[in-house]
Design brief:
single chain
Length: 311
Amino acid sequence: MGAVGFQEADYIWKDGKYVGWHDANIHLLSTAVQFGTSVFEGIRAYETAKGPAIFRLDAHIDRLMDSAKIYRMLPEYSAEQLRDVCVDIIRKNALRNCYIRPMILRGYGTPGLNPTLSPLETYVAAWGWGTYLGEEALTKGVDVCVSSWQRMAPNTFPARAKAGGHYVNAQLMKMEAVQNGYVDAIALGTGGLVSEGSGMNIFLVDEGKIISPVLDGTSLVGLTRGAVIKLAEDLGYEVVERPVPREELYTVDEIFFTGTAAEVTPVASVDRIEIGSGKAGPITLDIQRRFLDTVRGETDDPHGFLTVVEE
C-alpha cells in the first residue's frame, strides 16, 4: 500500500528557476543515482481558511541544511531563500493541500566514490498528495509487523541526516511488510530495542502515559514527533522518552505512528496481536484531533507551527 492520491504539478524549482515537471532531470551517472548522495525534506501544506499553510517550514529547512552540512554538501542558497521557494512554489502550481520536497543532491561529475567532485544541484518540488496510508488508516488503524531488517547502528550512517541513501533500508522494511500482508513495519535498532517505523516515528500509550523510544542514534529526529509531544503536553498528557523493548509493543494500550506523511496514524495490531481493542484508542484519537485541528487552522497555533501562504 503506497502513496494515495499523488498528483503531478506543472513546475519544479531547479537551481534558481522553474522548469516543467518532466524537465527536472539528472544524468544517469549522477552521484545521487549511483550512491544515494542526496538530502531532502518532506513538508506538508494544508488548506486553511486563510489559505494554504505550511507545517513547520522553518524547522524542516533547518533540518535540510543540517543534513547537507553533515554530508558536506551545503548549497549556494540560504535557508531563507529555500523557505521562500517553498512558499512560492505553492502559488506557482496553484496548490492547496500538498506535499513539498526540497532536495539537495550531487549531480554528474565523477563515477567514483569521492562525491566532492560532483556538482551540487538544488530542487524544490510540490504536488497534491492524499493521506499516506489511506483515509481509513486514520480512523481504524493499521496492521503492522516488526521487521526482520534493523535500523542502522549509531556511527554507521548519521541517523539525524535525512538522506536519500538511508531509505533503501526503509524500502526493504516496507516491501517485506506489504508482501507479508501488513500495511507497514516497526524497526528495531541494533540493540534489539524499538527504534521507529519504516519512515515514521512511533509512540506507545500505557496506563494513560505516552511513551516515545529514546533517540539513540538509530532513528530520525522527527519534526511531527516533536510537535506531537508539545500538543500532547498541551492536552495534559505525560510524555516519557525511554528505551522500549519489542515485547512491550504487544502489551500496551495504544500505539500510533507520527510523520509528515503519516500524520498521526493509529496501529491496530502488531504481528497479528491486537493492540488494546484492536482499533484507534481514545488518547491516540485525542492527539490526532488536536494535530489535525492545528494544521488545518481550526484551533489556536501557540507554537507557531504554521506558515500561511498569502494569496
